[in-house]
Known about the structure:
The structure holds two protein chains of two kinds.
Chain A: H1 11-15, H2 28-33, H3 40-52, H4 59-66, H5 73-77, H6 84-98, H7 104-116, H8 118-133, E1 164-165, E2 172-175, H9 180-184, H10 186-198, E3 202-204, H11 214-218, H12 222-235, E4 241-244, H13 247-253, H14 261-268, E5 270-272, H15 273-282, E6 295-299, H16 302-305, H17 312-320, E7 324-328, H18 341-344, H19 346-363, E8 367-370, H20 373-382, E9 388-390, H21 392-405
Parallel strand pairs in A: 2-3, 2-4, 4-5, 6-7, 6-8, 8-9
Antiparallel strand pairs in A: 1-3
Helix pairs in contact in A: 3-6, 4-6, 7-8, 10-21, 15-17, 17-21, 19-20
Chain B: H1 3-11, E1 16-17, H2 20-25, E2 37-41, H3 46-59, E3 63-66, E4 82-86, E5 93-97, E6 102-105, H4 111-118, E7 123-124, H5 137-143, H6 150-153, E8 160-166, E9 172-176, H7 187-191, E10 200-207, E11 209-210, E12 214-222, H8 225-237, E13 244-249, H9 250-260, E14 270-278, H10 280-296, E15 299-305, H11 308-319, E16 331-334, H12 344-357, E17 361-366, E18 375-379, H13 386-403, H14 428-441
Parallel strand pairs in B: 2-4, 3-4
Antiparallel strand pairs in B: 1-2, 5-6, 6-10, 7-11, 8-9, 8-10, 12-14, 12-15, 13-14, 13-17, 16-18, 17-18
The complex binds flavin-adenine dinucleotide and iron/sulfur cluster (2 copies).
Amino acid sequence: MGWVTDHPPRMEALDSCVACGLCLPVCPTFRLTGDETASPRGRLTAMKAVASHGMEVDERFAEMMSFCLQCRACETACPSMVPFGGVMEASRTEARTQVPVRRDWFRRLLLVNVLRSRFLLRVATIFAAVMQRIGLLIRLPVVGAQTRGLRPLSLPVRTTAGGTWGNPSGDVAMLLSGCVADVWFSDVHKATIEVLVAAGYRVEAPANQTCCGALAAHGGFADDARSMANCNIKAFASADVIVTDVAGCGAHLKVYGRYGDDGAGVAAKVRDVNEVVASAITDGRLPSFPTSGRKIGIQDPCHLEHGQHTATAVDVVIGAAGFTPIAIDRGGQCCGAAGLYQIDYPEISEQLGRMKADRVTDAGTTTVVSANAGCEMQLRRFLDDGYRIRHPIEVYRDRMMEDDRRPTTDD
Amino acid sequence: MPLIDELVALLGPERVRHHPLDLAVFAKDAGVTSGPVVAAVFPETAAEVAACVKLAVTHGVPIVPRGAGTGLAGGAVPIDPGLLIVVTRMNQIHEIDEIGRTAWVGPGLINLDLSTSLASRGLHFAPDPSSQRASTIGGNVGTNAGGPHCLADGTTVAHILAAELVTADGDIVIVGSDAPDLPGLDLRAVVVGSEGTLGIVTKVLVRLMQNPPNAATLLIGFSTIQDAAATVSRIIASGSIPAALEMMDRPMVEAVEAFVQAGYPTDVAAVLLAEVTGTGQSVADTTSLIESIAHSNNAASIRVATDSAERALLWKGRKSAFGAVSQKAPDYYLHDTVVPRTRLVEVLGQIYEIGERHGVEMLNVFHAGDGNLHPLVAFDANEPGMFERVRAAADEMVRASIEAGGTLSGEHGIGIEKRDLMPLVFNEADLDAQARIRDAFDPQRIMNPGKVLPSGSRCFDASGARL
Ligand SMILES: Cc1cc2nc3c(=O)[nH]c(=O)nc-3n(C[C@H](O)[C@H](O)[C@H](O)COP(=O)(O)OP(=O)(O)OC[C@H]3O[C@@H](n4cnc5c(N)ncnc54)[C@H](O)[C@@H]3O)c2cc1C
Ligand code: SF4
Ligand code: SF4
């Protein structure tokens, strides 16, 4: 039957793969299995087989696609610059549309309905916060183990959407509050806002924004992802710069160009907070602090390294905060967090999580920064309590605050 | 029991792929031909490989060994419905002898992984095909792979001391040894480069080399191909063999630079990438010798990189060359001929002329130091009649190389794609001798049949069966 949706994998994108195989070794699922069908080239060949050679979108196709972590390491490795992320999302939508998926309604509820609704997110968070306090959260079926990686959830629930901060005449930095990030990682947003304000921005978190749609798009809910994107394209239209402090969301906002010219306009203004802060440090709008000699490990989220090609901005931020940045496993493999993947392929996710935790242990630093909420949770889940896992901007903000409190020598 | 069921009983369902979509995925390597696959299996030990071989023999299904599938000649592609024995899971480093500088490794180990894991000991595996970050040691043995640094160090065959092999009978044998000069026939050298036609390599004893203390990489731009080629000849004639000497023409440089952004000059007709290794003084001396030769041959620009990150980036560019081609067109077809270095300029001229005459887009990237050309034709296979045109042009390029005193293949192997050109370089007696060796290993012709030797290679081969 071939493709049936309005937006199947683009033929030019599939054609741009010359089958050289240079992407194989960077692919975590190929590394674990040695199986071409679990490799980027194999997945592209399967898509081509459907597009041009009469193969069906069947259960095996769906399985080949869903086994992909969507880490996009293959994109960075590919000399032909095949846009893998986009064709994979399209293939997943085809698979979801043509092959019955177990508990599809539940996945949609989670990835679309809950993530779009501030009310449902808040209710879920209050429930989770209570369960966390009485120690029952990690006992929950299916998701319990993953919640070990959560930060302590605050009660009452704090959110940022709708707020404005800082110099009214400064450049407008609009913050993507996000979905779970807003309710579970409000401390990170707080640090981001404080540092952006210090850099002279007027920070706004538009009230009419919604979830970026990354998880919906990765999960094969292309239409829902599009409608979320359209909502954000309106909400962020007037920004000077759009800032995200979750690498996965940033990587997705940066592909909004696929949703037309307005989308492209928004995408062009999106920056990870580390990029913004690193350039403010470089041009003197934010201070660099003398080095303390202490080390901080840097975990490179795939969505910063491969999705946005900006991993080194974190080094600048951590260096300016007075620490020696130690790259942990740069160019290495995905940590296995990968959204719903943790639930779909728990063993693989765990295996990759443990491998990443081992790299952290090898690096010998007990503080680690990650610019992506999902990776942060995965690290915390597989490292013991002796490790501190933070967002890089929190580290920079703390150093900034410490300095504010210390009397200057001129006094 | 059908073959698939027996394989599943042996390896479990996860290690036997046989769904139609799986077979489509496994139908090709990095070349252009595809073939019919019965199943792809992933054994993890020599004993499992032997068991798979015996099952295939019982069912009369031909066997095709496969590593990473980066081969460019269809070596890992079956001609008649065949069983792919994929060795990627046999990727262990079994033991390292640091003093004797050898290691026993699995055939599925990725070439670059071996060198990376030896870095802290200051050792590496010398053969460095441009595919080294993806291709396997077993595949390198299969094709006797070469690479930029093989100019000084020799190709894979010079770095393999012994191999464990599962034969067509399902026996596990060892060819070669770590002894410097083994009595008897050197079967090891016969197995290296046999493209899976003599058996499946299940373990390899590799020679390791010490990392050079110093290195410099020169990137030299020329406004004509002739000047670049003349520089190569003069460097070789000077008697100092650099560690590597590579050339790319402008279309290739453009594609590569768009990907790596390493600062390759895109306004010149050709670039030479030369590497010099050794101790500090000798590196400095050879570097300035190469610089002066380049200058006297009208070099347009010279950049010397000694910083290891900068060198690595330049090499990443060179090693991405084939992969970057799709920026020009979705498919490529390439040959791998060798020409005498003295006739480099002349043959290159002919190659461009042939490309132009057939109206096909040409890119060139090659191991200039040993005259190993990779004329590459970029095309769109969806265009009707295009592939035939490309093939005709490419075959003409091969003939031009051979007429100039060169040969058919430097390193990529013969596989299916170059098989029927073998009579251009071997006469009947040569082919017969090769076919007899093969029959001695595999009388039933079950191991990668139809590859390397054209049918009828065996004189008096009345059956006409595929070799
Ligand atoms: C981008 C690119 C660059 C390349 N650059 C070079 C280069 O610089 N130099 C070069 O020489 N080649 C080069 N190649 C070709 C290719 O990478 C080499 O031939 C490589 O050695 C193949 O290794 P593989 O693991 O992919 O083997 P495969 O492609 O899987 O197999 C190659 C052949 O070896 C046989 N084989 C594989 N494993 C075994 C085994 N365990 N036992 C017996 N037979 C086996 C197969 O049957 C087949 O005939 C390049 C290819 C690409 C795509
Ligand atoms: S590296 Fe790019 S061109 Fe090569 S096989 Fe992978 S996706 Fe295709
Ligand atoms: S996105 Fe990641 S897991 Fe998926 S094919 Fe690419 S490298 Fe492999």
